[in-house]
Amino acid sequence: MTASLLLLVIGILHFAHGWVEFVVYPADKKDVSACSQINEALVKMLGDSNVQIYKSQVRQITEFWFIQALEVQKATILQIPEVDAVMENVVVAENSIESFANASGSTIASSTGPNQAIPELKLPLRSQRDAPQDLDLVSWPPRKRLPTSGKMPWYIYDVARGTDTYIYIIGNGINKDNAEFKSMPWPPESHEWHYAYGVSDSTTDDDLAGHGSCVASKAAGWKTGVSKNSQLVVMKSLPTLADVNFAFAAALDDIIEKDRQGRAVVVFPATSIQTFGPGSVLPRNWRAVKELIRELFGQDVVVVTASGNSAARSSAMNTVPAIWGLDPDFPLIVAGAVTTSGTIARFSQGAASRSEIVWAPGESIVCANGPSSPGLAVRSGTSFAAAMVAGLAAYQLTGPDPVRPGSVPSNIRSRLLANGRPIHPLAIPKVIWNGQYGALNAHPSNSTSQSVLQLMQGMQNATLFSGITNVTEG
Q: Which residues lie below 8 Å from residue 279, measured CB to CB, with a gap of 6+?
């Protein structure tokens, strides 16, 4: 659902019923006594059914209240002692998707040829022959030219990496019936779904365009994803003020409750609708989000977001959370989009801060479709670059060089920036790389008894592109 349509629906409900949804913030969320008094005052004024409190039991704090009230009651609520702000629950963010004219499916799916030799790999490496071009690029080595015709031959990855890691997807849900998720080693179970205020409590993708499904599949999908052993956690939410605050708070609490510190990545594939410049004063809702992200860092959680798609208006980033990633003391990972040839996508913001952005494929990528169509789709946007970066971050969490506890977010950000490489013969930008050598037709092996045919689990005979749907959005 687009931001404009959401605004229309909210406006109609306000007109029809006379009530307005608000979010109430306490001055000090750690002050138990003051928050209790605020809650009592709100319930007395509005009734139990119109007041929902977000109270974290694990952190023993009150983040906010989600209420329904008359517009005229807002001033009275602001007079309650220790209330810091009362904000209308409007749409505050938009998915970082980009409209474009697709290449044909046949062009994107150019084959490497039936006679291409399948490489013999040394365990625990695996070769995925049917990977889309954007995924192949993640294992393409430095100083190696791309093929002049056809697609790159393989996505090479370590089959042991990503195990016991968790990627939290903030968005409208995922199409769990898509083969990208059903074929995962650990498909997302119902207990890994969390529901904000504005969404249905169902394990579905409520966006017919499938934005969340595409994001999730680029992070960890079975054929199109970077980190195939990672487990998905769905923070189903709308891009409204209350739902965005809920998603970050609930992700933080879930990670603490389940002891996933140091093994979790949160991806917010969206940007604020409002633009900000250096030194801008943040509205209360975005201050709350920034504080929650800082708390996630304190729990050794990696957080990834999109740089934005408005390069035609501003090549520099001008939305949040993206601009927070320019602060060296705030290790937010910001993803910009490149084409499958390694050039910066025409729509991607971040070129002005090129060395501080983690660049990943985000134009004409192949991913899981939404609920309106089966199979796969072709989409563009920095949302999907952020998803691939989140996948590689999870992949890196389980590397042979363990990340020291207490510095996981900054360490992973530094590694992704340092390990990237430009796509030859380009000199910039540095694009994410998983350290493998997908350009090679053969790899040394100490054992001829373990071939890639045994490792690929039949994947080399699959036809990835037979189910592609070309779309004009996403």
A: none
